[in-house]
Each structure stands twice: as C-alpha cells, then as structure tokens.
Amino acid sequence: MSDAQPKLPNRQIPFSEAFKEFIPQGWAPYDADLPAALPATEFTAARRHKVAGQFPGERIVIPAGGLKVRSNDTDFRYRPHSAFAHLTGLGSDREPDAVLVLEPTDDGVAPTLFFSPRAARTDEEFYSSSRYGEMWVGKRESLDEMGAMTGLPCAPISMLRDALAKNADSTRIRVLRGVAPEVTALVDEVRTGHAVQGELAEADEELETAVSELRLVKDPYEVDQMRAACEATAVGFEAVVADLPEAVKRGRGERWVEGVFGLHARHQGNAVGYDTIAASGDHANTLHWIRNDGDLRDGDLLLLDAGVELESLYTADITRTLPVSGRFSPAQRKVYEAVLEAQQAGIDAARPGATFSDIHDAAIAVIARKLAEWGVLPVTAEESLDVANGGQHRRWMVHGTSHHLGIDVHDCAQARLENYRKGTLEPGMVVTVEPGLYFKSTDLMVPEELRGIGVRIEDDIVITVDGNEVLSAMLPRDPDQVEAWMASILGG
Questions:
Q1: Cα dihedral sign for 349, 352, 358, 363?
Q2: Greatest extent of the chain over all pairs of C-alpha atoms, in Å
Q3: Which ranges in the chain are annotated with CATH 3.90.230.10?
Q4: Residue 437, Cβ neighbours under 10 Å: how many?
Q5: Which of 49, 20, 39, 200 is nearest to 124 (CA)?
Q6: Which of 22, 118, 348, 490 has its C-alpha lying 20 to 30 A from 458's C-alpha?
Q7: DSSP 8-class letter at 120
Q8: What class is the 220-490 domain?
Q9: pLDDT tens digits, residue range 11-25?
Q10: Which CATH number, 3.40.50.150, 3.40.350.10, 2.30.30.40, 3.40.50.300, labels domain 35-213?
C-alpha cells in the first residue's frame, strides 16, 4: 500500500514541489515602517484597567471569536466580539481567533494580545489557506505591526496555552464564554479543580456583565464615533429619498431601498449596523420586517429603520417614516404627529439624574392619551397605563421606547436590570428614543381610515450634563419639514 497523502478539498489542485520552491521568490520586502496607532488606543488602556479593577488578582480572557461558516467553505463576513473590539480598539474585520489576556500584576494589569501573525512567504499558509493566506485574504499584520496599531504587547496564538496555564492553581481565571468554544475549553482545562463547575460559570457570567456595563457610559471617542455614524446614516437616508421614484417604478421597492442604503453604508462605513427594515404600507406594522420584498406605492408610507456601522463598529440606529409620494395624507399625518409628540416627550425626559425608564413612561403616556382621545382604547388612558392591571395600549406599541446604543445596536444587553432599565441616566450615555403606533390592516378595533398605517420615529441621543444632544438631528422630524426636505431632494 502506498504512503497516505493528505486529503485535499475536492476543488483544490495539489501544489508541486517546484511550485513550493518558486512561490517565495521575487517579492518586494514588506514595508519597514510601522502603522500608526488606532484612534481608540487613547482610551482602550483606561477601559482595560477599569474592567480588571473589578476582578483584582484575576486573569481575564477576552476572545475575539472565529470565522463562522455561511455555506460549506464560505464564511460570513467577520466581525469581532464587541467586548474584544472595545478593549483593543480593533474593529472591522480584525482579528479572527485572537485572544486578549489581562494578566494581574501588583500595580494593576498587564495585557497581551495573542493572535496569528502573517505567515512567511515560505510558509504553505501564504498561498494555500483560503481563510488566512495572504494570497487569499490580503496582507495580515506582523507582531510588531499589531503592537503598533493597538499599543498592546503581542504574542503568537501558539503561546496562549502556556500563558493560561501559568500559575493556574493559584490564579483565578475568568473567560468570556460562548465567544470561542476552543478558548473556553482551554480555559476550563487549565483551571480544572480550581473551583466547582457552577462557581466557574457564575464567575464567567460576572465578567460578561462587567464588560457589557463598561459600555454604559461612552468616553469622548465613542461619542464622536456615534455622531459620525449618524452623519453617515443621514447620507444613506437622503440617497433613499432620491431613489424613491425608481423604487416605485421597479417593483419590489423595499429591496431597492434596502440596496440603496446598503450601498451607502458600505461606502460611508463598514456595513449596515443591523438588517435594514424597509417596510412599506402594512409591512410597517411588523416590528422587525426585514424580508423587504414588497412594492412601494404612491400614497403609502415607508418606515425606514437603518444605521451605518463605522469601521470602528459603532453604529447609528435611526428610523424615519416617509410618505412615498412626498406628502402625508390627513390620516397619516394624524398618526405621525401623535408619534412625534410622544417622541419629543421621551427626549425631554432624557436628562441626567432621570431613570432610563422615565423616557418610556413619558412617551407612552402620550401614546395612551392619543389612543383614548381617538376612541381606540377600550379603557381610559390612566387605566391602560396601570402596570399591574392595564397595558391595553401595548396592542398598538408593544415595544419599549429606548435602548442603549454603541458598538452594538442593542448595546450593554448583559447589564444588570438595576443598571439598565432601572438605572440612572448619566452624561455620556447614548440611547435611542423610538415610540411608534402600529395599526395593522386586520385590526378591527381601529377606525378604518387608520388601518394599515404604521409609524415609528427614532433618534439617537447622548445624555449631557444639562440635558441631551440629538445626534441624528440632521434628519428632519417635523412633518412639514419632512415634506420640504423630500421635495428639495426630489425636485418637487
């Protein structure tokens, strides 16, 4: 029997020895100049010290996560875990399978970034690896280059096991579980016997909460990124309005809108921050309508909920409900103005010292009052707002009014209840304010003229020392201003 040969993928042509000798030759040397530091590095050290300070004397392990298969040997576009990006400053498509380790020291923490540096051109990975090879995915960083970019000491990922095993009997280790199973398994292996499994899981959950709550208050760099994300998103919204006639004419106009916004998201930033909701007509009454396969028709409303994610991964989250024809009908304007009044009440309530839930309470009080005035509510507004025995208004606005926003579209999602929904608003917090009214076409409790109308208005705000700043204010909200803005773009 002949010697066994390595099994190759069925599409891969074997590499001859002559090719392997030839391929490393004749390349220009890599640039000797190191890259500039990423802008976020001015703030990442403070973030790392803050999270490490909650677990003194403990080793903290933050994986970036790996590539995920989309179909067979084709991967999804890579995005690092948000906590890894926040603590390293690496965004966009960096850095698959990397791991940040925060090592306890007598005076704080010593970080190390473990990753796979680019392979030498003599290495088979250079030409054969469709996931990591330079000829397939482009030039990757060396240890020195990554260190210059992040301001972090860097080491090959092959050294991770020894780093985790060091003093494992006496050093408590926490890992961000669920991000990279192989890293979690390695951590569990080296800390076996250090504590019972239940205690380890609880410790890891505490770390997940800590890195999530670390983002509740944004530093100046993050606020600037959020402002830039809103500005980029406004460009996409303007482009959508300009192409509305084409979207109506082409059919499947929701897809056209999604595509136009997606083009500008890729051009202005990294990508969309979440699947775009381009909901026309009755589709606007499905809260997470992302199928986007419907037509746009004159006379209908388009609910566009979309955001540009920057290369830093910070994303906007803005919703405008626009008349496809450029003009609101009387019934559409009636619903729109009610939602706008509710939104303004929520924005006015968003001040330092208020609670996060005050925003929702202020907005939903307007929603309930309007529904009662229109004879839609079967009870009074006060009875509906009774948390224990009411809630009938939620038939027409089942969602909350706000969420934290940042490097995740629903940021800080693992924060504790007392620090999130029951938490106090502080300067630097970035939240959405997004009430809506949704009258499904099949809802017989709604006056016929309102059926099929869905409206949501959403803006991104940052809490300031004396109130708030609407970061997305460049997009008009007032219905007269919306119509004038659309006319200026469409030439009407």
A1: positive
A2: 87
A3: 220-490
A4: 25
A5: 20
A6: 490
A7: P
A8: alpha beta
A9: 678 999 999 999 999
A10: 3.40.350.10
